[in-house]
Amino acid sequence: MTSKEQFKLFINFSFVAILIFAVHYFLLFYFRRYFYAPNVLWINPFLFVLSFFSILIISLILRKNRRKNITNVYMFTILGKIIFSLLFLLPLFINNSVFKKEFVIQFFIFYFVYLIIELFCLIKITKNS
User: Fold this and answer.
1) Is 43 buried (19+), middle (13-18) or exposed (0-12) by CB count in 10 A?
2) Which of 88, 97, 12, 19 is nearest to 47 (CA)?
3) How do residues 34-87 score in pLDDT, each as one tens digit?
4) Which listed site, 11, 39, 61, 71, has its alpha carbon 20 to 30 Å from 121?
5) Residues 23-38, buried b or exposed e (16+ Cβ, 10 A)?
């Protein structure tokens, strides 16, 4: 995969992430009573950065090693994402917030959405390389 194709893929990934953020904001704005939790909009930028770096790391290693140990690299990036996600959710659990349930449910919904998008991007990267 050329760097121009990778750049296009990252732009598409960013566009989809902005679309996801807009949908999340829309749901919070119109259905505030059901979805409200303080600082819940920080979920999207956090997951975007995690997924972006995960795709970037895997594509760089794939470019170097030519599919050698790509499964191990993917599993290590998923492990890193899980550790950073737990660190992101840790203050919520320590403070014993009233909105803990709403925040965690929204977090994992968007976590799996970003995970699916990340998988599509990685499949496209591995097919083209």
Assistant:
1) buried
2) 88
3) 666 677 778 889 999 999 999 888 888 887 776 667 788 888 999 999 999 999
4) 39
5) ebeeebeeeeeebebe
